[in-house]
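Re: that chain you flagged

S.,

Sorry for the slow reply, it's been a week of failed gels. I finally had a moment to sit down with the sequence you sent. For the record, here it is as I used it:
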Amino acid sequence: MALRPIPAGDPLIRHSAGRSFRWAFRLGVAALAGPPTAIAWYYLWVAIDGPNALDDNWRGVVVGLIMLVAFLAAMGAFTLAIAARHAPAARGARWIAFGALPMLLAFVILGERFWWE
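Prediction finished late last night. Pasting the structure tokens below so you have them in one place:
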């Protein structure tokens, strides 16, 4: 009995790749929502307590954890998008899944260099 290759149109493979890409898209959106959420919390605390809003340790930890979760979601989205790169998806969804990690890295690197000094 000879082994036959799996045809490209196999619904099981197409469905699993589509599900992986849907998760990649969702994680990418969550990752891109992280920095605005952290910034919104920071400015809320500045409005309440003034410029020394992050002197409380727990507030700095919350902002840091939001960014850490955003980076983990971006890495997951990038990895899943690579794994499901043959899934049928819209071009914008593909850009969100693949672009979340580079955009977050650029935001943090450029922000540290130019905005937060």
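What I noticed first: Residues 10-14 have pLDDT under 50 and may be disordered.

Talk soon,
D.
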